[in-house]
UniProtKB/TrEMBL annotation:
<feature type="domain" description="SUF system FeS cluster assembly SufBD core">
    <location>
        <begin position="193"/>
        <end position="423"/>
    </location>
</feature>
<dbReference type="Pfam" id="PF01458">
    <property type="entry name" value="SUFBD_core"/>
</dbReference>
<dbReference type="InterPro" id="IPR011542">
    <property type="entry name" value="SUF_FeS_clus_asmbl_SufD"/>
</dbReference>
<protein>
    <submittedName>
        <fullName>Fe-S cluster assembly protein SufD</fullName>
    </submittedName>
</protein>
<dbReference type="InterPro" id="IPR037284">
    <property type="entry name" value="SUF_FeS_clus_asmbl_SufBD_sf"/>
</dbReference>
<dbReference type="GO" id="GO:0016226">
    <property type="term" value="P:iron-sulfur cluster assembly"/>
</dbReference>
<dbReference type="InterPro" id="IPR000825">
    <property type="entry name" value="SUF_FeS_clus_asmbl_SufBD_core"/>
</dbReference>
<feature type="domain" description="SUF system FeS cluster assembly SufBD N-terminal">
    <location>
        <begin position="15"/>
        <end position="186"/>
    </location>
</feature>
<dbReference type="InterPro" id="IPR045595">
    <property type="entry name" value="SufBD_N"/>
</dbReference>
<dbReference type="InterPro" id="IPR055346">
    <property type="entry name" value="Fe-S_cluster_assembly_SufBD"/>
</dbReference>
<comment type="similarity">
    <text>Belongs to the iron-sulfur cluster assembly SufBD family.</text>
</comment>
<dbReference type="Pfam" id="PF19295">
    <property type="entry name" value="SufBD_N"/>
</dbReference>
């Protein structure tokens, strides 16, 4: 028998401060409408959900032997270069590896968020909800993470973000102390195995001053009709730090994926993000960079391939709040069959953020005349000494290029794979993680039937 969401909230235990945040978020969720076409940022994407019928993903037990994991997970782990990783099935960690001793001795922390609340309460309380808040702010001034609850550059946090803030069950927690470099990536591999359920996750990555780390966040499942994956990712990049964040979403058919990812970037710090969207029937991903510090830098890359009846929506924000900061966004997508692609991107430059250098480019390759694409690049400039540009292009496969390949005996599916891969190459070519690139190319091959 399904339970109302308020009963779901009562199942979450924890310290008083976290319980208060969950309650605050749930009250906000109750007060907000489901996004609809009258909301500009959701104009082309409608989510149909009966919240009273949502059923949480069942609990899973942790296993000691990797052989007990699904074969798809084992294959990914064996082909991905990571120093340590977590595997989550729905709300629970089902397998984990430990950090190398030399990193633990330097104060690096990598564990699941639920455990971190108990084991590292001060650090979690300092940063959790600081980048993706638990409330709708009353203005657009953002306080530094770890000081006071931050305000958001987005005027509305939204119903789904509030739900994720209230009902998150688990996720990953990464903390890298000042001046420490983590050479091999850390990874979180999330799966779901029960149809007709929902899972809410939260990831928190903190890179202190002059720290350096890469985090890979992957999601994968078989077809799961009527299933919802809702989440938030908070990326805290302190002064002089470097963080590379990779998100690969490959949920099965029938999944609705809604996730907000936001980075807060300090003075002379760098955030490199890559968002890959390949799975789910409906996917809405928001990637936002708040360039707080002078000289901060944000590289925002993404690629997606929608086919059949998939609907992919990407919403981006490059928010320049400090002078002499740089951001570069490149989103490239492929649409086939009856799929729908949506891109809405904003470059916002605050008053006083002089010498801003910001770029935004979105390009879509259409493989089908029945596919649809909507692109809305935007600028909001409040400073007078800046370099900002944006652009968007949409076009079909070059028939001459296709004919050239076909005339040399290359079958249709392989020829299309080659053209698609070439189209996406300038994104893949900027990713220094070869195991990730190889995995993405394999998904592309399956999409065009060339695997």
């Amino acid at each position: 028998m399904t339970r109302p969401l308020d009963e779901h909230l009562s199942q979450h235990t924890g310290p008083e401060w976290l319980t208060a945040k969950r309650k605050q978020s749930f009250d906000l969720f109750d007060s907000l409408e489901v996004p609809h076409s009258g909301v500009e940022s959701w104009k082309y994407t409608q989510v149909e959900v009966d919240f009273s019928q949502l059923r949480p993903h069942p609990k899973r037990e942790e296993v000691a032997d990797i052989s007990a994991l699904p074969s798809s997970v084992r294959e990914r782990l064996s082909s991905t270069d990571v120093g340590a990783f977590l595997v989550l099935d729905g709300p629970d960690v089902v397998y984990r590896t430990e950090l190398p001793a030399e990193l633990t001795e330097k104060g690096v922390i990598f564990t699941d968020l639920r455990s971190a609340v108990e084991q590292y309460p001060d650090k979690v309380q300092q940063y959790l909800y600081s980048v993706v808040p638990a409330e709708v702010p009353d203005d657009t001034t953002i306080a530094a993470p770890g000081t006071t609850p931050s305000k958001s550059p987005d005027p509305s946090e939204g119903k789904f973000s509030a739900l994720a803030a209230a009902l998150w069950t688990n996720g990953a927690f990464v903390y890298v102390p000042r001046g420490v470099e983590v050479e091999l990536p850390l990874g979180s591999f999330r799966v779901m195995s029960e149809a007709g359920t929902y899972t809410a996750t939260r990831t928190l990555v903190v890179a202190e001053d002059n720290a350096r780390v890469t985090f890979i966040d992957e999601q994968d499942s078989d077809a799961l009709p009527g299933t919802y994956a809702i989440g938030a990712v908070e990326l805290v990049v302190k002064d002089g730090a470097q963080l590379r964040y990779v998100s690969i979403q490959n949920w099965g058919k029938g999944v609705t994926h809604i996730q907000r990812q936001r980075g807060d970037v300090g003075k002379d710090a760098t955030l490199n993000s890559l968002v890959v969207t390949m799975g789910a029937t409906l996917s809405r991903t928001e990637m936002q960079s708040y360039l707080r510090g002078q000289g901060s830098d944000s590289e925002m890359l993404a690629l997606y391939f929608a086919n059949e009846d998939q609907h992919f929506d990407h919403y981006t924000l490059q928010h320049h709040a400090a002078p002499n900061a740089h951001s570069d966004l490149l989103y490239k997508g492929v649409s086939d069959d009856q799929s729908v692609g949506v891109f809405s991107g904003m470059i916002k430059v605050d008053l006083g953020a002089q010498k801003t250098d910001a770029y935004q480019k979105h390009r879509t390759l259409m493989l089908s005349s029945e596919a649809q694409n909507f692109s809305v690049p935007q600028l909001e400039i409040n400073a007078n000494d800046v370099k900002c540009s944006h652009g968007s292009t949409t076009g079909p496969v070059d028939q001459e290029q296709l004919f050239f390949l076909r005339s040399r005996g290359i079958r249709q599916e392989l020829a299309e794979k080659m053209l698609v891969t070439a189209f996406l190459e300038d994104v893949l070519g900027r990713v220094p993680l070869q195991s990730v690139v190889k995995y993405i190319e394999g998904i592309i091959a399956k999409k065009v039937g060339a695997a």
